[in-house]
Write a structure and sequence with these properties.
This protein is α/β, with parallel strands linked by helices. It has two domains: 9-34 and 48-371, TIM Barrel; 380-458, no CATH class. The protein is 29% helix and 21% strand. The strands form four sheets. A five-stranded mixed beta sheet has the order 1-13-18-17-16. Strands 2, 3, 4, 9 and 10 form a five-stranded parallel beta sheet that branches. A five-stranded antiparallel beta sheet has the order 11-12-19-14-15. α1 (9-22) packs antiparallel against α6 (229-244). The longest helix has 17 residues, at 194-210. It is globular and about 70 Å long. The N and C termini lie far apart (65 Å). Bound molecules: zinc ion. Zinc ion binds next to loops. Residues 56-57, 159, 163, 221 line the site of zinc ion.
């Protein structure tokens, strides 16, 4: 068992104590929020709706849920028919050839999102040590496929260490007791401190670091953290910073596949915004269920649940229509569906329908969406006679602001201590990119390469 790379315990505990003391009652604490002029709106990036695909249960080579299902069944005392499927007939492996095929298709179509890599899939073997049943060369090749065909468009997340049995950090082995209390998907996190959960996430992240897969976030397996949400958020913040020095850690825990509940990202535990070390953690929310075959190769609900053939109905149409980011959810198991690629086929159709119906989508990884939302919520914005003054804890591309009516000659964006950037005018909002502006109705919209610290937008008549 490699040494768990220690988080800076003192800073870690100080951070925990500070936020827990400040917000004892709230399930999730937003933390600090700066002043924000009411006359200036931060719009969606480039006036486009962020979309993406969140893929769970993927890893290298191992067909995770073939090995996980009997472990779920055992922990559940063989009482749940969901875990009594014909898993013995499922292949051990989801081939790299399919990973490459999917990755190349996504790259060719500009599709982005998150792709889990379970570090010690169902206790079969640790990716940084070896996978019994595969050669080291197989494992190296599989990691390389992930690096070259997945990572360009997809964030990598652990989920968590095994997605099944909880690993005892003292021994590196699964705890002996097989019950919901010692399964990652169920009760283990309940009642645990942010420190304990953070140490667990740190091992998960360290294994991926050691095999050359950087992460800016984590995915919770099953119900992991469900009854420990503040601790989960704080543990993510500290462990992802601790292992990867990520500026804006994020996590995927929640999915709301119907109803009015907001599915916009949630910026939490923000602090130190004006100082040298601003901090926050972002909760990325999925807005669909898994309608592509699930974690267990069930009959897929199909494309219509996402978007109907005529582009008028479906959850994506609803969420995009209300102006919120629309992150879809799927499991790698169902995307491949025992080699029949049923989920992949459905997803390709969903993408075709989205591209036909909408011309203002922006495919984003959760890390990009987290950065945009953190900048949107945590940048101080003051309206001035000439335009706007910003104070940003985090830099952010395509930071799109709407100002009311007014003159605009040669607008400039000037970060403190840097030369002014003259914004180019475009004649339609569809052409907005970094460093441009346009009129939209009576208002003026600018798309800025937001810099950390102080900066100024001047409309210059
Ligand atoms: Zn999962």
């Amino acid at each position: 068992m490699s040494t768990v790379h220690p988080i800076d315990r003192r800073a870690f505990l100080a951070g925990i104590a500070a936020s827990a003391a400040a917000f004892p009652s709230l399930a999730q604490s937003p933390g600090d929020r700066p002043a924000h002029a009411a006359t200036i709106t931060v719009e969606l990036p480039r006036l486009r709706t962020p979309v993406g695909l969140i893929i769970d249960d993927s890893t290298c080579l191992v067909n995770l849920n073939k090995f996980a299902m009997p472990q779920f069944d055992e922990a559940f005392g063989s009482s749940n028919p969901v875990y009594r499927r014909n898993w013995r007939e499922w292949p051990n492996e989801i081939p790299d050839a399919f990973v490459r095929k999917f990755g190349e298709w996504a790259a060719a179509n500009g599709i982005k999102g998150k792709y889990s890599i379970v570090p010690y899939p169902a206790c079969v073997g640790r990716l940084d040590r070896g996978l019994p049943g595969w050669s080291q060369a197989d494992l190296r090749a599989s990691l390389e496929v992930v690096r070259t065909t997945i990572m360009p468009n997809w964030d990598i997340h652990p989920e968590m260490i095994t997605h099944t049995r909880v690993i005892d950090l003292a021994t590196g082995q699964p705890f002996p007791e097989i019950s919901a209390k010692f399964m990652e998907n169920w009760e283990w996190t309940t009642g645990r401190s942010a420190d304990e959960i953070g140490a667990y996430l740190t091992l998960a992240l360290s294994i991926l670091r050691d095999v050359g897969l950087p992460c800016e976030g984590i995915t919770t397996p099953g119900g992991f953290g469900n009854r420990a949400l503040p601790q989960l958020a704080q543990a993510t913040l500290e462990s992802v910073r601790g292992v990867f020095h990520a500026e804006i850690p994020h996590y995927f825990r929640h999915a709301f596949d119907k109803g009015p509940e907001s599915v916009a990202p949630r910026v939490e535990y923000a602090s130190g915004l004006d100082g040298p070390d601003p901090r926050c953690v972002v909760s990325i929310v999925a807005c669909t269920g898994d309608w592509t075959g699930g974690w267990d190769n069930t009959e897929p609900k199909g494309a219509d649940a996402f978007i109907t053939e005529d582009g008028k109905g479906g959850r994506m149409v609803e969420v995009i229509g209300r102006g919120e980011p629309a992150m879809m959810l799927a499991h790698w198991t169902g995307i491949w569906w025992l080699g029949q690629e049923r989920g992949f086929t459905i997803f390709k159709e969903v993408v075709r329908r989205l591209q036909t119906r909408f011309d203002r989508l922006l495919w984003m990884r959760p890390s990009e969406l987290s950065r945009y939302w953190a900048a949107r919520e945590l940048t101080a914005i003051a309206a001035t006679d000439a335009g706007a003054d910003f104070h940003a804890p985090f830099p952010c591309p395509s930071f799109t602001v709407r100002c009311g009516d007014g003159p605009a000659g040669k607008p400039t964006y000037t970060p403190a201590g840097a030369p002014a950037l003259v914004l180019d005018r475009v004649d339609s909002t569809a052409k907005l990119v970094d460093g441009t502006w346009c009129r939209d109705g009576v208002s003026r919209v600018a798309c800025l390469p937001l810099r950390k610290g102080a900066s100024r937008l001047v409309w210059n008549d």
